[in-house]
Amino acid sequence: MEAFATIFRRYYAPLCRYAFRFTENGAAAEELVQELFYVLWRDRRDLAEVRSLKAYLYEAVRNRALHYIEHVHVRARYRQAVTKEHIDDPISYSPQEEEEAKELEKRIYEILGRLPLRRRRIFCMHRFEGKKYGEIANTLQVSTKTIEAEMHKALKTIKEGLQIVD
Known about the structure:
This protein is mainly alpha-helical.
């Protein structure tokens, strides 16, 4: 336990800076390094074969960062493809359907406007900015469980406001 704590204190900040050079996202860099230390702790008995811990850690962070970047690019390409598909082959809605959609959107924004500020911010960060609970928790400096609870309350309020029954 002491050895792990020493390794963590020695390498955590430098590894976060190294990951940031790849990701250009502080929260993502920290998450990658935290995940690495979790795996390091979980698989600590299998690491007896590692010759250079420092080289292992930096290579692992690099690989995780490159995987993260590829994931970001895949998501961007998917969004672009979906947007292009929507533009190339727009779906026709009747005037009544368009009016109903506008009314629903208006009602949702009214409900969102009545949410407590922090809950609204969390909901918007997740649903409109596409951030994960962990990213939001890091940004707002709260626990992931708090984010989950706030999202649950926000969704419940929206459902009640729209009179949607599960």
